[in-house]
Amino acid sequence: MKNKLTDLNNHLFAELERLSDEDLTDEALEKEIQRANAICGVSTQIIANGQLALNAEKLKQNAISADFKVPSFLEDKGNA
Predict the structure, then answer these.
(1) Computed over its alpha carbons, how large is the radius of gyration of the chain?
(2) Cβ neighbours of residue 9 under 8 Å, at least 6 residues apart?
(3) What is the residue-wise DSSP string for 18-46?
């Protein structure tokens, strides 16, 4: 399965449309809300995973660079 972030975006908008359906019964709306909460939870994890991968790639590219600078929070403040 090769999903992309555009697929996630499409799923989120489709769910928004289902939640906006004014003809839903209270029971159907409650089921849709449960589904929306599940989709939201999975979506959050997908986005967090993508952010982690992006941060790792940025660090990797920066480490290869001749202009690599140690992040300030890792610099030795020393006893100067």
Answers:
(1) 21
(2) none
(3) HHT-TT--HHHHHHHHHHHHHHHHHHHHH
Contact, 28 vs 36, CB < 8 A?
A: no
Q: Which tokens sit at 23?
A: 């003809």
* 21-30 pLDDT per residue, tens: 999 999 999 9
Distance (Å, rounded) from C-alpha 8 to C-alpha 2? 12
What is the pTM (predicted TM-score) of this model?
Answer: 0.67
Contact 50, 5 (CB under 8 A): yes
Q: Residue 14: in which H helix or E strand, if any?
A: helix 5-19
Which of 2, 33, 34 lies closest to 19, judged by CA?
33
8 Å CB contact between 3 and 31? no
